[in-house]
UniProtKB/TrEMBL annotation:
Its EC number is 4.3.3.7. This is 4-hydroxy-tetrahydrodipicolinate synthase. Pathway: Amino-acid biosynthesis; L-lysine biosynthesis via DAP pathway; (S)-tetrahydrodipicolinate from L-aspartate: step 3/4. It comes from the Bacteria. GO terms for cellular component: cytoplasm.
Length: 312
């Protein structure tokens, strides 16, 4: 992490597969280098986008090792997804992760499936924070975990020593987003976890985002964060709308099918394959994403008047 904390665009790396179904490590290495060279602040290994639930233990280690190497080359932080439903097992996983020495932070979901009370979630993260040698980023994604965190709970989590941020993915910009971002604990960063809502969350004060669609337009996403940092509202508004249209297209089908299909179409990964029960993206979703990308590339972002003209 930079000394000022978490900031900017973190790309949750896809797991590329070769034609024989094995993990395409060379393609992953090149992809990781390319997004870092384009302006990603760091990488996330084993985010939802990396299909961690569908990988073997050995494949997961490979993903982390390849991403760690790329981050070392660029002096960029690596966040690693880990943890699950059971508190003690999650604590052991965090210790194992710390043992690898490569993670700057761990992305840990609110315990999925169990549906504990909010006090139970707080107790879970209190235990993890007390035992984890690596800083924690809470992954708040109720539509995946079945466990919704409200603003007071997120604030209480943010005050725990060792909890440095939340990946906020409520599927909308809700009351809790407004409430939380209006009064953040010191040193606690909010990262947008729903690509389509990056711009409004930045407007509310989010520090950046963890965004699968940033594989496809890393520099543009980084530019949006920079525009907000500099108070360049015209640029921020136009870029925000164009990037939201791209993200809408990417998320028209279950992630990461569309992003992988587009990367494969661009020749950046060997195949568009995802593992069952995920299904490959439709041609229609890929075509719509490519067209949103073309529109984005047509923006002349250094010239505000051109930007305004580019608005539909
Ligand atoms: O891998 C991630 O981290 C992300 N996962 C989200 C999801 O698929 O639910 C989407 C977001 O872009 C990043």
């Amino acid at each position: 992490m930079n000394p000022h904390g978490i900031h900017g665009i973190y790309v949750p790396m896809v797991t590329p597969y070769d034609a024989d179904g094995s993990v395409a490590s060379d393609a992953l290495r090149d992809l990781a280098r390319s997004v870092l060279a384009e302006g990603a602040a760091g990488l996330v290994a084993l985010g939802t986008t990396g299909e961690p639930a569908l990988l073997t233990v050995r494949e997961k280690s490979e993903m982390v090792a390849v991403c760690a190497q790329a981050c070392r080359e660029f002096g960029a932080p690596l966040i690693v997804g880990t943890g699950g439903s059971a508190t003690d097992r999650s604590a052991r996983e965090l210790e194992e992760l710390a043992g690898t020495g490569v993670a700057d932070a761990a992305l840990v979901p609110a315990p999925p499936f169990v549906r504990p009370s909010l006090a139970g979630v707080l107790a879970h993260f209190t235990h993890l924070a007390e035992h984890s040698p690596v800083p924690l980023i809470v992954y708040d994604v109720p539509y995946r975990t079945g466990c919704a965190l409200d603003a007071p709970t997120l604030r209480a989590l943010g005050r725990l020593p060792g909890v440095v941020g939340v990946k906020f993915a409520h599927g909308t910009v809700d009351h809790d987003a407004v409430d939380l971002l209006g009064d953040l604990p010191p040193g606690f960063a909010v990262l947008a976890g729903d690509d389509v809502f990056l711009a409004p969350l930045l407007a509310l004060g989010a520090a950046g985002g963890v965004l699968a669609s940033a594989h496809l337009a890393t520099a543009r996403f980084a530019e949006l964060v920079e525009a907000w940092d500099k108070g360049d509202l015209t640029r921020a508004r136009v870029l925000g709308h164009a990037l939201a249209r791209l993200s809408e297209a990417v998320f028209a089908e279950p992630n990461p099918a569309v992003v992988k299909a587009v990367l494969a179409a661009q020749g950046r990964i060997p195949t568009a394959a995802v593992r069952l029960p995920l299904l490959p993206a439709s041609g229609d979703a890929v075509a719509r994403t490519l067209s949103a990308l073309n529109a984005l590339n047509a923006l002349e972002c250094s010239d505000h008047r051109a930007l305004l003209r580019a608005q539909p």
